[in-house]
Amino acid sequence: MRGTERVSKVFIDSRYCLADGSIEIPAGGLLLDPTDRCWLAEFSAVSSWDTVDATNRILYVQEPPANLRAISLSPGPHDLDSLAADMEARLNGPGKTVPGLYSVSRVAPSGGGGGSIYKAFLITNNSSFALPRDPVIRNLWQINPRLPTNSTNTLFSFPTGDYGNTDHVSGFVDLRRAHSIFIHMPSFGAGNTIGVTGMRNILAKVPVDVGYGQAIHWTMSGSDHDSVEVGAHSLNILKMELRDVAGNIMDLRGSHWSATLVFGK
């Protein structure tokens, strides 16, 4: 800030981040009142994160009599066919104790039709097996309730999976790993917001309503409720983080984002 000038709008772009991911505000930064408010006016990015990553890559399988398998699927962007092929290969890979071969195919969800046709998975085997959901997973694999299971259940789950059977049909397979991007601002904020994990520095939630590789464009509604208190007298460095609903940092795989911040009363 120089003289009596007052900056009320800041344009930021991830291509101008410092080595630690923060962004330096030129011309001496911003002079603020702690009661000033900040709005995310607009945000642009690319839906470039992986379908399967460390947060959802484990397929849990229970084979009789007591073989518990935690199968890691291949990370990366997947469509329904590539994901089905990867599951089938890994189900029939090391650690399998049942005699039959697993088969993974695409089917319509129970009661589904129209645009939802063939957007569920059917997994079969001549022998009985279970594909449990998270509460049973935590019990059988003894996973601390405070820790994530990192299971594929966030993409698809099997209504009959808690019990042994020779075939299981999943619900709708949702290849969008993240439905929203949560914009976190750890460099300022008065704790006016709270997320499902208790994080208090969320500035905005940006819906992701496009598929992999497509552009995300979002603009604010203009409501006062879209803002947060700054809680600082000045800002020289901005730290902006893109996280999913669970608080995991979004890996955009080298693509970039841009945003506009508006400061005012």
Descriptive account of the structure:
The protein is elongated and about 70 Å long. It folds into two domains: 9-49 and 178-264, Jelly Rolls, CATH 2.60.120.1100; 58-169, no CATH class. The strands form six sheets. Strands 1, 4, 12, 13 and 17 form a five-stranded antiparallel β-sheet that branches. A three-stranded antiparallel β-sheet has the order 7-8-9. By secondary structure, the chain is mainly beta. The chain has helices at residues 80-91, 134-140, and strands at residues 9-13, 23-24, 30-31, 37-46, 58-63, 67-72, 103-107, 120-129, 165-169, 180-184, 202-207, 215-219, 227-229, 234-235, 237-238, 241-243, 258-264. It is built from two helices and 17 strands. A hairpin with a 3-residue loop joins β5 (58-63) and β6 (67-72). The model has no long low-confidence stretch (mean pLDDT 92).
